[in-house]
Design goal:
alpha/beta, six-stranded parallel beta sheet, 6 strands, 38% helix
Amino acid sequence: MTVQPDNPELGQPPSGPCHVAIIMDGNGRWAQARGRPRLFGHHAGARRVRDIVGACPELGVKYLTIFAFSTENWKRTQTEVAGLMTLFRRYIMKEMQEFVKANVRVRFIGDRPRLDEKLRGLMDEAERMTNQCTGTNLTIALNYGGRDEVSRATKRLAQDVAVGRLDPKDVDEETLPKYLDTYVLPDPDLVIRTSGEARISNFLLWQSAYSEYEFIDTLWPDFTKEVFSKLLSGYGARERRFGAVSV
């Protein structure tokens, strides 16, 4: 479905989600529909991130996690990948001071070693600069894949077992999340995917076991504050039972 706002007056929806995760899809198609290269769409998508992060306090969203670049995105053309890496570097350098002013805490999740040294340094600096911020928690998934994350977490857990820091008998479903990239974050209440695709694309596989999902036709550069608000309001009308039976 294509979501259209039906009320221009925005506000915190009742019983809205605390943590929203977004698979930002459709930048390339948005650009191609305008006769422009795909990177033009990625730049438009980056500007949209700024708008949505800025809307979070008013809409009652404390945690926002965005899927910026997956472990599978390396399969794209060398030109597009190089352009994206340049965009990420510029985005961090340009936005970090604004995030500090807006009290936004920034974190990155994903497998960092494959990223270039300059980008990794900027990511570290962004986390350091904002680590005292107490407003919106923005998590950017960069070179991230859910299976890769679980694999890396399992290796760390196995290492702790091997050296005696962890008893195998104590390993349960509460143990593994402590080794995930998202160990300091609550699980997402709502996962949104834009652009009409109805798949989760290896995103937050463990964390989203009981998340609500919204798959919408809107392309990411067209994902406005009003569209976001309507989705959050719809979430507030849902009943989440986490496997239990309603009475």
